[in-house]
Amino acid sequence: MGDLSRDDIANTLRILVATDCHLGYMEKDEIRRHDSFQAFEEICSIAEQKKVDFVLLGGDLFHENKPSRSTLVKAIEILRRHCLNDQPVQFQVVSDQTVNFANVFGHVNYEDPHFNVGLPVFSIHGNHDDPAGVDNLSAVDILSACNLVNYFGKMALEGSGVGQITLYPILVRKGSTAVALYGLGNIRDERLNRMFQTPHAVQWMRPEAQEGCLVSDWFNMLVLHQNRVKTNPKNAINEHFLPRFLDFIVWGHEHECLVDPQEVPGMGFHITQPGSSVATSLIDGESKPKHVLLLEIKGNQYRPTKIPLTSVRPFEYTEIVLKDESDIDPNDQNSILEHLDKVVRNLIEKSSKKAVSMSEVKLPLVRIKVDYSGFMTINPQRFGQKYVGKVANPQDILIFSKASKRGRNEAKFDDTERLRPEELNQQNIEALVAENNLKMEILPVNDLDVALHNFVNKDDKMAFYACVKYNLQETRERVKERSVRSTDAAQSIEDFRTTSAGAGSAVSFSDEEDAAQISGSTSTTRGRKGSRVGSKSSQDVSETGKGKTSARGRGRGRGRGRGSSNLKQTTLDATLGFRQSQRSASVAATAAVRSIAVEDENVDSASSEDSKKLGIHEVADSSNDDESIQGKGRKRAAGRGRGRGATPSKRGRKSENFPLQRMLMSKDDDDDDDDVTKRLNKSQPRVGDF
Prior knowledge:
Elements: H1 6-11, E1 13-18, H2 35-49, E2 54-57, H3 69-83, E3 92-93, H4 97-100, E4 121-123, H5 139-145, E5 150-151, E6 165-167, E7 170-174, E8 177-184, H6 189-197, E9 202-204, E10 219-225, E11 248-252, E12 258-263, E13 270-273, E14 291-298, E15 301-308, E16 315-321, H7 333-354, E17 365-371, H8 380-384, E18 398-401, H9 408-417, H10 429-435, H11 445-457, H12 463-508, H13 512-526, H14 535-550, H15 558-564, H16 568-579, H17 586-606, H18 608-621, H19 626-637, H20 646-651, H21 658-682
Parallel strand pairs: 1-2, 2-4, 4-5, 6-9, 8-10, 10-11, 11-13, 16-17, 17-18
Antiparallel strand pairs: 1-14, 3-7, 7-8, 12-13, 14-15
Helix pairs in contact: 2-3, 11-12, 12-16, 13-14, 13-15, 13-16, 14-18, 14-21
Organism: Salix dunnii
Protein name: Double-strand break repair protein
Region (Disordered): 477-574, 600-690
């Protein structure tokens, strides 16, 4: 502050940035239970010393979704000590605060007349303290209700679809400096990944031009809490998903401290990753020194200053490969123990040298990753008993592993990516379903996975009930939509059938002779469909039956097809209207047809003279293409459930002998009408020749 002029101070916005404080981590461990609170206390002390305008937290303020009463009390105590004072707040929030802060008060905490807030704290939620339950509340909501924290970046997402979110910035003005602060609390990485790749699923609201401030004058910041390391492209957020108008991004969730801002090629913005303030994973990434970032913004320019945290417990990490050590005998376990003891002692001595300037010397965390390929392992708990009181984690000093087939370099890279131990031994429902090639019909796999996570990790008793209730409601709505569509389709088909049947009857029964022809053609077309024929239809069938019976001499159905070919279209239209409704009578009609077939043989033998007469005319008329038509007639007649008489009619061949055949059929009606009528009265209407 001493190197800044009074004008610079009035126009410079100073922000202290920290992420992943994990208050309450290891609260049941006698040695490490206070580590997270001591680090958070130091962060707040630095904010007071540097006289920052506000503190910005990047999620995971609490380690548990439902922190204990002890953790909540300690967190509230720290915030009250450092945030409630008479120091004036030098900046203004000029955006719609009811949109920015999702609480019943709807304004920034320092504007409450009942509180003297001298150090405002702005925070989003992370994956550890994200909202849950019926009321969608987070542990950060408790601090917000106490008017100690300004909670923003809370998005309401429902359902199994991709969903849509809109990011409204908090517009902060201090002198001539204008900052648009966007916040995005943790959303499941797979879902947010799909949202960024879905058009218009993520919308960014730009600040409008104000008096003395153009749109281009705003310094655009984003704070988010998502996976950044690309172990799985679908399980992380790519920096290129973010809009190019952003200037600076605070990335939470990743615990490795990469506090120095890094420019993203081709995007135009810088990213800082402060990392966690307490080591929650004993791996190489967490062993780096912990820092917070002091960000000073003036106009469109910023200046970062990293500040080390001195209250963090020292952590020493190393890796060894047993087969590369010359003083170890593979068959001698004592030599392995002696070598590991020497490594641990060296790490403890190294840690003590670093802590000379510290007022309170803390027991260090020590972790040795041992590649035991070709060697035997030892018991880590038994090995650590000799270091009780010397290290903070005697029970898990050693971790054994084997070299990956891809090589040690890639194995190292994979290990640095797993910074969160709570994710190492988890397997979600999606993976289980994929392994067993199962398929969920009603309940989506993603929703079940989220419900299980909320039930186990967040103690949400209604998680499965809400999941099942919502998806059953969606399923009912889809079934209703399908039933409405099917009803409309059925009504359209019924209307079409009625229209077709009416048109067919109007045309086919124009005169008596055509009625006789159509009755015979329709009966034979239906085949085994079980035609319903009245007394008039029976008489018509009996008249045409003689012609059909006597035509069996050569073509087996050719004469019948010729007699009805001119009425092909009308017959098909009339038949189409009734065919669907006649399926239920097919079984009964089949038995009747078989009995008729036996009687047909007797009738055919009795009317052989008529067959000879019509057979001569038929051969004379169709001698040129007798073989082809006969083949077609036989092929079509072989199908079950369809009468032979309609087959040539459907082929669409026109007969040149239609008047002659009609005359012969009328002549035969006088001779054999009585015999055929008796036969038809004895059995059901004839539906085909077999």
